[in-house]
Amino acid sequence: MASSLSRLAHVAWIGAMLLLIAALLLAGPSLSSPLSATFLASAGLVVALLGLLLLKQIYRNASEDGRYAIKFLVSGFGVAFAYDLFLSSQTLLLRGIESVTWQASGLVTALTVSLFAVAARRNPQWSLNLFVSRHVVFY
Questions:
Q1: Mind giving me the DSSP string for 31-57?
Q2: Contact partners, residue 95, CB within 8 Å, separation at least 6
Q3: For the whole model, what pTM was predicted?
Q4: CA triplet 43, 48, 54: central angle to 5 degrees?
């Protein structure tokens, strides 16, 4: 079960990335054509849906202790993927990105960073043991 789910996840992500690369290649030098914009929005919609689906599977298949450890991490990625789903679907429906929706994506990203910080704080074994010298920090 786990190996088939892992294989399906890899196929889904590779397929979504190939779809995005194909969209960029078909668009050519200008990304202003309506066909390429629709194709890119569709690819974004597929990636957001796959991301939400994979997050659900990760959370459901985690043990009880594992769920406690990844709750805020999954919530942060879930908020980011849900907003991407909203943005991509609105782009497809309205045939363009509204400026207010695009500007709000920065706020959503900033809010998800706080969820990632809580997840990292709750799990000290995720530490990277990173050291930056004072000289580098100063400059």
A1: --SHHHHHHHHHHHHHHHHHHHHHHHH
A2: 34, 37, 38
A3: 0.66
A4: 125
Domain residue extents for the chain: 2-138
The Cα 61–Cα 43 span in angstroms is 27
Measured between alpha carbons, how far is 28 from 114 in angstroms, rounded to an integer? 38
Sequence-separated (6 or more) residues with CB below 8 Å from residue 78: 52, 55
- Percentages (nearest 5) of helix, strand, coil residues in the chain: 85, 0, 15
Q: 2, 61 in Cβ contact below 8 A?
A: yes
User: Which tokens belong to 109?
Assistant: 């990203």
The amino acid present at 119, given as its one-letter code, is A
How do residues 88-114 score in pLDDT, each as one tens digit?
A: 888 888 887 888 888 888 899 898 988
Residue type, 24: L
